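Exercise 7. Given the components listed, write out the predicted structure of the assembled complex. Treat all entries as one system.
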Amino acid sequence: MTYCVGLCLDKGLVFMSDTRTNAGVDNISKYRKMFTWNVPGERTFVLMTAGNLATTQAVVSMLEERTKAPEERNPSILEVPSMFQAARLVGKTLRDVIKESAPAAGPDAESPFRATLILGGQIAGSEPRLFMIYPEGNFVEASKETPFFQIGETKYGRPILVRAHDPAMSFAEAVKLLMVSFDSTLKANLSVGLPLDLLLYETDSLDILKQTRIEEDDPYYSLISDNWGEALKTTFASLPQYRL
Amino acid sequence: MTYCVGLCLDKGLVFMSDTRTNAGVDNISKYRKMFTWNVPGERTFVLMTAGNLATTQAVVSMLEERTKAPEERNPSILEVPSMFQAARLVGKTLRDVIKESAPAAGPDAESPFRATLILGGQIAGSEPRLFMIYPEGNFVEASKETPFFQIGETKYGRPILVRAHDPAMSFAEAVKLLMVSFDSTLKANLSVGLPLDLLLYETDSLDILKQTRIEEDDPYYSLISDNWGEALKTTFASLPQYRL
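Answer.
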């Protein structure tokens, strides 16, 4: 499985994804699930993927036009005039890949070739935008009321996001929030695993502010993981007692 | 959907279940999902149900022998010699009901007639035991390493259970823990709703220690819900800051 979160802040966009893929518990691998297309000063796109790995790899390869010889590659995602058009292009590519892989099954609910994507970014002259793209190729956009998207194993890490997310928070606070959300998920579900990929995008910068990988031995992640567990227990103990 | 938890403590067993059922968001009802068979001094059984409501109601009706005239009812669950046999009886009843409802589909993974049950209790002369019973009629038992079972919408409320459960905790602490776990679930998923049913069973008492319904306006639940949300935010704020 997978866990990815894309978060809208007043300051910009924050993306985090895990790197574990599994086809059964005896076939676990590490794969990047975060992809970027960045033309500094003009456009920055971040794509995160959950679902069938063959599908998501094919989508990324097609978006990068790896079907063509290296010198002829001219990804049309670098030419679309708007984020909306970028989401349409990614959605169409996803739908086409699923259709091709499953001629009999089609992109219906039970197809094992399904994938769900989060696309965020900005094009010069317009606002930063964040989309969740479904296997059917359609998509929804984040808004003030729904300022984040999760894909993959979304449930364990959702309560803290719902409670602590605040669009006014700083990038540092948002990273902390995502680490707590990921830690809750990792603790509860073996199919989500370290390392994590983190990307910060600052509104109107039209460039990646920070992109880094949080490894197994990352001291800040360990600190958060240990402290959060302890703090939860202390907080829990401090709540008023039930009277039988 | 549903959320039920059965918890083993050194002191006894704790059960909590919600009461919301839904067949689509426009068809929401309130149903009890916790059932008891209690012969003080001899045996106490608690059953909690998740899944298809027609299936779980049929299972309970058959266990209570409501197929017979009232004066002839002599539920065999009150005669089985061991908790293991009680779990077998419940499992067989569940499998039979599913089979009957779905002659074509059978009790396979995609059948909409599925249900999952938690059965706990004690019979005089043996230890209290806790089982999770699958739609196929087979079951697993709780142990020191796996001291609780969840059924229904299990993921949102799992991280706090994993972190704060301690078999040595008192009944009062266990109720607090379950309320936090249920509150996280209710906040994140509309298909789980108040009121909640709570039952406490003390080892070797062979009677129900406490059975109560936690209503929408329960002051302790509101206190926990409000305080936990605030405490989470405070705890989160107190964690060390990420350095960009």
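Discussion: Residues 3-238 of chain A form a domain with the Glutamine Phosphoribosylpyrophosphate, subunit 1, domain 1 fold (CATH 3.60.20.10). Residues 106 and 212 of chain A are 37 Å apart (CA to CA).
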